[in-house]
């Protein structure tokens, strides 16, 4: 067996790419395994037809849903993982998100760490991922100092909308955005193909640009692409992983290391542990709690568009406005409803994926007069919302969204707001049970090994040299984008590993 490494990191997205960069500062010999390849920098990066019609960068892998029906998950396998396609809205969770919070549909459980524990790592994460924002304008903002970079200014059309929101008594704030030198020569162009598109000029703060590439500048870090971890092999005691079985360019090889960090994303990390069942772990590796794959969450998300036939939307970069007035409750509800943010511009081809028979020119005319938003609510961890694998190792995702009434109330509020802003019509669209972009929660962390898979440092309770560092550790999903919290926890776990294991 090949064992020239101290640490193997499986996956190079928000969790894996970040922890690779942080551990690169140690003397450890690190191998990053990535099942995909790097996204090429090419004209198609910004071509809506290539990205949305031909699905150029999307996985072709099919998953099964709870009924056993195949579907194409909205996920990407490659260097940087899904961060290559993210909108780079990089939020801290609210202080209350770390505590137990009562929702319309039940209780969102407390985290084993509080906001203050993660705060210094949020600071570091924001610097590492170039987060631009404005301190002090968001009514739900947790205690914090100024952002490392000034907010991205609102385009004139969005500034007018912000004024309109204030006139409605709301408290709009700047979205925190991870962009590299926006508006400056050689930096981010503030274009209209950001969210869901890779950045052709590498000006988006993604895990390749901010994590993997700087990590690889160190001689102790090696990246294998086209290297898919098939399973983890435990030693005879079952208390240690001794090898990773990898399919690399068509061959199967085994590679060992003192420490293994699983960072495949919430669905694939759980699937990998389930596929790694053995004598001492018949129900899956590190699964003495029976919770591996369970408590899957993905947010309730509705894309919304305010439309006015006589108002052409001239804004190019639209993704700068947040509304958090309903985060902890609404006018008719004492329960949290969620978060609203402006989105990148919808292109006709994107809209056409919803109703394919309408010609793209009609959609183009429509979306040219629309302003795009996203309403997002917390879903709650339920044990029967889970990832399983079938006899062939195929992923099956059982997910029944919950907390729907809270989300419906949020969408209702957003609709009212858009009508008050003068939009004639408000369109909505949701992926509901097929939502995988904000997947989290399948290996939740906690202090009690019967109630969690990972300890508060993301080490598995059952297997001493096995960590999971990606979105899987979330005990609750909160209602803001997850990326910065994954990055901050990866930095925290890296500090811990360097202090205790390396
Ligand atoms: C279109 C889109 C927009 C988004 N916008 C935002 C946003 O604005 N803000 C935000 O915070 N979040 C956003 N997200 C969500 C965000 O991208 C994810 O939460 C984040 O990337 C998850 O990080 P991760 O480390 O858990 O997994 P990923 O980033 O998905 O990384 C997992 C990696 O593991 C690799 N992998 C999987 N299985 C294996 C295996 N068996 N062997 C080897 N490698 C493997 C994958 O190829 C991938 O590189 C968005 C997501 C999408 C798809
Ligand atoms: S140039 Fe800026 S706005 Fe355009 S894709 Fe790159 S990071 Fe996003």
List the helices and strands and how they pair.
Blueprint: E1 2-10, H1 14-23, E2 30-33, H2 48-53, E3 63-65, E4 70-71, E5 101-103, E6 106-108, H3 115-128, E7 131-132, H4 156-167, E8 173-174, E9 177-178, H5 207-216, E10 221-224, E11 227-234, E12 241-248, E13 251-262, H6 266-275, E14 300-307, E15 321-323, E16 339-342, H7 348-352, H8 360-367, E17 370-377, E18 386-389, E19 395-398, H9 404-420, E20 425-429, E21 466-468, H10 483-500
Parallel strand pairs: 1-2, 1-13, 2-10, 3-19, 13-21
Antiparallel strand pairs: 3-4, 5-6, 7-9, 8-15, 11-12, 12-13, 14-17, 14-20, 15-16, 16-17, 18-19
Helix pairs in contact: 1-5, 1-10, 3-10
Pick out its properties.
single chain; alpha+beta; seven-stranded mixed sheet; 21 strands; globular; binds flavin-adenine dinucleotide
Could you write a compact summary of the structure shown?
With 502 residues, the protein is α+β, with helices and mostly antiparallel strands. It contains 10 helices and 21 strands.
Largest sheet geometry = 7 strands, mixed
Low-confidence stretches: none
Helix percent reads 10-25%
Multimeric state of these chains? single chain
Tell me the overall shape: globular
Overview of the structural elements:
- It is a single chain.
- α1 (14-23) runs parallel beside α5 (207-216), α1 runs parallel beside α10 and α3 (115-128) crosses α10.
- The chain has helices spanning 14-23, 48-53, 115-128, 156-167, 207-216, 266-275, 348-352, 360-367, 404-420, 483-500, and strands at residues 2-10, 30-33, 63-65, 70-71, 101-103, 106-108, 131-132, 173-174, 177-178, 221-224, 227-234, 241-248, 251-262, 300-307, 321-323, 339-342, 370-377, 386-389, 395-398, 425-429, 466-468.
- By secondary structure, it is an alpha+beta fold.
- The model has no long low-confidence stretch (mean pLDDT 96).
- The longest helix has 18 residues, at 483-500.
- The strands form 5 sheets. Strands 1, 2, 10, 11, 12, 13 and 21 form a 7-stranded mixed sheet that branches. Strands 8-15-16-17-14-20 form a 6-stranded antiparallel sheet, with helices on one face.
- The two termini are 22 Å apart.
- Flavin-adenine dinucleotide binds next to α1, β11, α6 and α10.
- Residues 179, 188-191, 193-194, 197, 199, 201, 203-204 line the site of iron/sulfur cluster.
């Amino acid at each position: 067996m090949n064992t020239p490494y101290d640490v193997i990191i499986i996956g190079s997205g928000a969790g894996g790419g970040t922890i690779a960069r942080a551990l690169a500062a140690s003397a450890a010999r690190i191998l990053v395994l990535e099942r995909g390849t790097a996204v090429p920098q090419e004209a198609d990066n910004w071509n809506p037809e290539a990205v949305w019609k031909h699905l150029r960068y999307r996985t072709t892998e099919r998953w099964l849903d709870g009924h056993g029906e195949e579907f194409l998950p909205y996920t990407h396998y490659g260097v940087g993982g899904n961060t290559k396609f993210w909108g780079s809205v990089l939020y801290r969770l609210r202080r209350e998100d770390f505590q137990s919070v009562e929702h319309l549909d039940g209780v969102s459980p407390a985290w084993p760490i509080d906001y203050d524990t993660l705060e210094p790592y949020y600071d570091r994460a924001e610097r590492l991922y170039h987060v631009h924002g404005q301190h002090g304008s968001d009514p739900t903002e947790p205690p914090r100092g100024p952002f490392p970079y000034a907010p991205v200014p609102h385009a004139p059309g969005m500034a007018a909308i912000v004024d309109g929101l204030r006139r409605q008594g709301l408290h709009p704030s700047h979205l925190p955005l991870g962009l590299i030198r926006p508006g400056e020569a050689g930096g981010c162009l503030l274009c209209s193909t950001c969210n869901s598109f890779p950045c052709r000029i590498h000006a988006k703060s993604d895990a390749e640009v901010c994590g993997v590439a700087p990590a690889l500048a160190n001689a102790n870090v090696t990246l294998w692409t086209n290297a898919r971890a098939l399973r983890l092999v435990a030693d005879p005691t079952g208390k240690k992983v001794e090898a990773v079985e990898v399919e690399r360019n068509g061959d199967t090889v085994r590679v060992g290391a003192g420490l293994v960090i699983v960072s495949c994303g919430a669905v694939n990390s759980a699937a990998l542990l389930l596929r790694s069942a053995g004598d001492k772990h018949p129900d899956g590796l590190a699964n003495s709690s029976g919770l591996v794959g369970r408590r899957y969450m993905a947010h309730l998300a509705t894309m919304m568009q305010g439309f006015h036939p006589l108002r052409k939307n001239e804004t190019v970069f639209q993704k700068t406005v947040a509304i958090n007035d309903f985060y902890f409750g609404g006018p008719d509800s004492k329960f949290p409803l969620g978060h609203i943010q402006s989105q990148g511009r919808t292109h006709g081809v994107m809209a056409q994926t919803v109703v394919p028979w309408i010609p793209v020119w009609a959609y183009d005319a429509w979306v040219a007069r629309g302003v795009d938003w996203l309403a997002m609510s917390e879903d709650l961890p339920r044990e029967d919302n889970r990832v399983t694998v079938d006899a062939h190792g195929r992923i099956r995702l059982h997910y029944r969204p919950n907390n729907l009434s809270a989300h419906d109330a949020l969408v209702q509020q957003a609709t009212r707001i858009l009508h008050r802003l003068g939009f004639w019509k408000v369109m909505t669209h949701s992926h509901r049970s097929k939502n995988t972009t904000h997947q989290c929660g399948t290996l939740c962390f906690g202090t009690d090994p019967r109630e969690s898979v990972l300890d508060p440092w993301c080490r598995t309770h059952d297997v001493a040299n096995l960590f999971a560092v990606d979105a899987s550790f979330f005990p609750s999903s909160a209602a803001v984008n997850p990326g910065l919290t994954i990055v901050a926890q990866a930095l925290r776990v890296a500090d811990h590993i360097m202090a205790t294991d390396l």
